[in-house]
Amino acid sequence: MSLTVLHEHINFRYEVLKKLGSGSNAVVLKCMDHTTMELVAIKIFRNARGIKANVQKEVEILKRLREKDFNNDHNIIRLRETFSFRGHHCICLELAGLDLRKVMKTAETVPTMQSVRLYARALLKCLSLLRKEGISHGDLKPENIVLIQNTIKTINFGQSCYGERALSDIQRIWYSAPEAILGLKSSGPMDMWSLGCIVAELYSGEILFPGHHNAHQLALIMED
């Protein structure tokens, strides 16, 4: 994507400092906001068929959560603004640190029980608001949980939805509830299953159900 050139200015405001990551639908950049002089993350979506509806849904959910989480204390990534630039849909978010996957990979020891409790409480607070608003995240995993200052926040609401809907195959099966693997619709209880898998992994340092494919994943779950 041509917009990832270092020191390029996006929307005449955001200076590109670093590429943070990319996925099938978007690239995320670390930028300097020259209006507020703050570091931010800009998520730039690719121009591909079917992307527009997904972007609109993600933005709608982020705006709703920002409105409901007016004290910014439910551990959800904060949407700052949305805009279009050179034909690309863009989302400006608060800048986060490492995700839990990278933290667990680089840590020499597993987190203390106190840290695990704090992480679990933070995630439960996020899921409590999602449940209240009738939203399921749909892709809860360590890569979508990031450190910000002294807490963690949930990111990447691209697979989120209101109510129930069929899941895509994007979610990693290690954190998928049996219902999701069997092709049932996404719902809040499935997010709780994902949370349980994440907390167990934080505590033990090992993936709870490291399946290689759907059938293997279900077999591991049934064995335990």
Automatic annotation (TrEMBL):
Q: Which organism is it from?
A: Petromyzon marinus (Sea lamprey)
Family recorded in the similarity comment: Belongs to the protein kinase superfamily. CMGC Ser/Thr protein kinase family. MNB/DYRK subfamily.
The record's GO molecular-function terms, alphabetically, read:
ATP binding; protein serine/threonine kinase activity
Q: What is this protein called?
A: Dual specificity tyrosine-phosphorylation-regulated kinase 4-like
Q: Which domain of life is it from?
A: Eukaryota
Q: Spell out the GO cellular component terms annotated for this protein, sorted alphabetically and separated by semicolons.
A: cytoplasm; cytoskeleton
Q: Which SMART domains match?
A: S_TKc
Heme in keyword set: no
Which controlled-vocabulary keywords does the entry list? Answer: ATP-binding, Kinase, Nucleotide-binding, Serine/threonine-protein kinase, Transferase
Domain Protein kinase: residue ranges: 14-224
Q: Which residues bind ATP?
A: K43
